[in-house]
Amino acid sequence: MRFLAADIIFPISNLPLNNHVLIIEDDGTIQAIQQRSDFEDAQLEIFSGALVPGFINTHCHIELSHLKNKFPEKTGLPEFLTLVTKDRAHLNEEILKAIDAAEKEMLENGIVAVGDISNLPISFAQKAKRNLYYHTFVELFAFDPMNAFKAVEAGNKLLAEARGFGIHASLAPHATYSVSHELIKGISAACFETGKPTSIHMLESNDENELYVRGTGLFRKFYRDLGRDIKHFTPTGKTALESLLPDFNPQVKTLLVHNTIATQWDVEWAEDLHPNLFWCFCPNANVFIEDRIPDIPMLMNHVQYITIGTDSLASNHTLSILEELKTIQNKFPEIATADLMRWATLYGAKFLGIDDKFGSFDVGKKPGVNLLADMIDANLALATVKRLI
After folding, report:
1. How far apart are CA 322 and CA 111, in angstroms?
2. What's the pLDDT score for residue 50?
3. 140-149 confidence digits (pLDDT tens)
4. Average pLDDT of the chain, as a whole number
5. Using one digit for the tens of pLDDT, what is the confidence trace for 32-75?
6. What does the pLDDT read at residue 83?
């Protein structure tokens, strides 16, 4: 049994607590939170800082970890995608080494569970070691509706391979500019049948809205540079979100990733349409690619669930949820630290369907325990994270 005391405890499902003790069984199960006055100091492990549950990274691309420091920053999304598409193929040995290092980095940064994107099976052996909890989103591309069936068929083969490794997995469409209505409907139907979540990159840049509203912009050039014909595509005259969200089954938990250009109208309309939406922010990747981050204070006032992701090392310098939270707090100091912690833990666990074990210090869970040291009045600017359990 361990008795952990700190300046503050963020149990997540309740208000932050001062002068309390977190009681944990030897296997990591939360037994209780009690008043510190019930104990002698000699009984306690006493820390300076805050105790928080293990972090949940709801959006990562661990198979792209070998692309760290390969690309310039602030190129804009279409140019960034062009660079990744042309340079992602490397020797398997190099990719596997980078995947292993990336996982170690997440472990050191107090991450306990990951929603990870896979286009290939190369990360499956690492995930099967179960150093972290992974839910793998097998990501599909098929902008031409005629290719939707073939894409789902290929995705199902990769799903079967993932499950052969004992990995939790489901299908996910890539992004608004690379999928069709038919593909989304097929994926969403499959996720409904299995009860699994899905995700999509959404509202990352103005270019995707220009494509859907007018059929013009840099995504036309992106496909032209790749030598791909998109004559099949007809603009809808609506935003990308408005065009594609109705294709998702509202009973399927759906993660909208990035939301960099989301407006109040977008989020209110989307929340009314789809009751199982989760909005994921990856602010450091947004800065890396587009040099902007979403209007998070507006979004938090109009959506039910927010989660945090790191995106890949192709578009980020580190896989640290704490660094993402620092970026948000620096830009929007009015956001309470307790809200940031909830997004980084409980809501991510809810999306992945693992909140019975992770995400809060509720009795009976095994969420992991992080120490956030060097916090000043709940300000994260100087904070560091240490994984205690």
Report:
1. 9
2. 96
3. 999 999 999 9
4. 95
5. 999 999 999 999 999 999 999 999 999 999 999 999 999 999 99
6. 85
**Six token digits for residue 296:** 């998070």
pLDDT at 91 over 80: no
Distance (Å, whole) CA 255 – CA 374: 32
